[in-house]
Structures are given as C-alpha cells and as structure tokens.
Amino acid sequence: MIFKSSYLRNYLFLLLVLLTLACGEKPKEGFKVIGVKDGDTVELLMDNKPVTVRLYGVDCPEKKQDFGTQARKFTSDLAYGKFVRLEQKGTDRYGRTIGEIFLPDGKSLNKELVANGYAWYYRAYANDPQLGYLENDARRLERGLWSQPNPVAPWDFRKNKREKSQAASQKPIAKPADADREVFICPTGSASTYHTRPDCPVLKRCKGQIEVVTRGTAVVNLRRTACKVCSKKK
C-alpha cells in the first residue's frame, strides 16, 4: 500500500512538471522577421516560406542616399529576428506584399520610421493622415534625415537616376573608322556583336539568316560591338 502511494505521488509530481513546462512553452504569435532588405522592405517567414513585405505608406532613403544605411539599421534593430504582426494592404506591381508591421510592443514599424526621421510619408500610394502628422513633427524637430538642409525624396532620387540612365543610353555614338566596310551580323535579339569574317566560328552558331551591313550601321544604328574572335589583329 505504501509502495502504491509513493508511486502515485511521483506520478502526479512528474505530471505537474510536464504541465508546467508545456504552459511555459507558449508558441510565438505572428511572423518572424528573417531579413531586412532596406529601411522599408523586410522579409517574413510565413508558412515556412520567405515573403517580401514592402511597408505601407512610407518611403525610406535609397541605399546610396544619405540616411539610407541608417534607415536600414533602424528597421533591423527594431524588427530583425522578432515575431511581428502583419496587417496586409495589398500587393504592388512587383508582387510584393504591402502592409503595416506591428512590433512585439504593439508599435507600428511604419510609423516609427516616419516619427524618427528615417522615412517620408509616401502620399502617392497611401492615405494615412497620422503619417503626415508624424512627418511634420519629425521635420520640426529635425530628426534623422530632416537634420539635413535639403533632403532629396527617394522618389525624386529614383526618377533622376532613371533619367540619367536613359540619357546615357540615347547618347549618339560616334561614326567609326571604315564605316562603309561590310560586316556580318546575326539578326537574333540576343546577338550584340558584328563580325568581320563570314567564317567566324562565333557567327557560325547563328540560328538565323546572316545579314550583311556596313560597319557604320552595325555600330551606330544597331549598337553592336566588334566580335573579339574575328576582329583580332593578326
């Protein structure tokens, strides 16, 4: 009888310990932040798959802008490795999820970025008056990027970058020497060179009908460069 009583006590004690441990291992709520691409773009682990989330209503400086690195660090310090709540707002043209992220303490990561001067209120793609108030307050107190005399909005920075790239691609190419000399090209879209010899081993791999044009046309109009195989000087 004593043996049975002792056995029962041990059994109940073990059961109590297991229940205590089980209660202590409460599963985490939300999604874990597994990556921070930049200040306004993070990666969450959802259903064991990485999902890119673009923060709704905010636009942080680009990486090559002033405060771009600081904005990324701010987001990383607040969110990386933590479990957060996501309030989805939709998707953008790149297929990324658009949403507001709430940190473990309940604060909005989106609003924290704007309030601390690490992001602009992205008015073109959001309607959240509170973000506007937070931005005005950050401007007034010269927080973060607002400590600079003339900060450039990231959308203007991206626009200027695109315009410079387009201008460079449209810049006229000087007419080459021997512009009237006949050269050979493969008309397929992936080809980017011209050939000085029809028996060039590279040209022989062409799957289309080989065309004959002048060197001037190949360089100026088609923006082709000389094949390194057949154009070598002997």
In short:
It comes from Adhaeribacter soli. 33% of the residues lie in helices and 23% in strands.
Fill in the keyword field for this structure:
alpha+beta; five-stranded mixed beta barrel; 6 helices; endonuclease; nuclease
Structure commentary:
The structure is a single chain. The strands form 3 sheets. The protein has a 5-stranded mixed barrel. It has a 4-stranded mixed sheet with strand order 10-8-9-11, covered by helices on one side. The chain has 6 helices and 11 strands. It folds into 2 domains: 31-152, OB fold (Dihydrolipoamide Acetyltransferase, E2P) (Beta Barrel); 182-226, no CATH class. It has helices at 2-24, 68-79, 109-115, 129-140, 154-169, 215-221, and strands at 31-38, 41-46, 49-55, 58-59, 83-91, 97-102, 120-121, 182-185, 193-195, 211-214, 225-226. It has 234 residues and is an alpha+beta fold. Residues 156-175 are annotated as: Disordered.
Helix tally equals 6
Q: Would you state the CATH class of the largest domain?
A: Mainly Beta
Kindly, what is the distance between the CA atoms of the first and last residues, rounded to a whole number of angstroms? 106 Å
Helix content: 25-40%
Mean pLDDT: 87
Number of domains: 2
* SSE succession: HEEEEHEEHEHHEEEHE
Strand content: 15-25%
Task: Specify Rg, calculated over alpha carbons.
Answer: 31 Å
In CATH, the architecture of the largest domain is: Beta Barrel
- Spatial strand sequence of the major β-sheet: 1-2-3-6-5
Number of strands: 11
CATH topology tier name of the largest domain: OB fold (Dihydrolipoamide Acetyltransferase, E2P)
* Largest β-sheet summary: 5 strands, mixed, barrel
Describe the global form. Answer: elongated
Structural class: alpha+beta
List low-pLDDT spans: none
